[in-house]
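Structure first, sequence second, as always.
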């Protein structure tokens, strides 16, 4: 198993854990932060595995890294980090968008 595949799998596990914590152990704004972070992280864990299957390692790295930054900043705020951590979230989102555009470019090139 490659490092990237392992990170994608761990990312999926973390997303499920965050969603469960959001559903059963959080309150207030933390619930939405955990839900949003978990949703994006889980989607991009699967996207990374699909990209790996397509032998598109670059987009897969962007999905795993972007999801870690995007969801991680939301998770940190959910457990009490300062709200300015929300300013980090768009960096992860930008990496996710770049991963999708790169994957589209690979598909277009055939």
């Amino acid at each position: 198993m490659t490092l990237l595949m392992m990170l994608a799998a761990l990312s999926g596990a973390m997303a499920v854990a965050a969603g469960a914590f959001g559903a059963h152990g959080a309150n207030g704004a933390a619930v939405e932060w955990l839900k949003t972070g978990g949703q994006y992280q889980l989607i991009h864990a699967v996207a990374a595995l699909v990209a790996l299957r397509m032998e598109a390692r670059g987009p897969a790295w962007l999905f795993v890294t972007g999801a870690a930054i995007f969801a991680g900043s939301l998770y940190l705020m959910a457990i009490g980090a300062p709200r300015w951590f929300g300013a980090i979230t768009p960096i992860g989102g930008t990496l996710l968008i770049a991963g999708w555009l790169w994957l589209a470019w690979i598909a277009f090139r055939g």
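Margin note: The chain has a mean pLDDT of 95.
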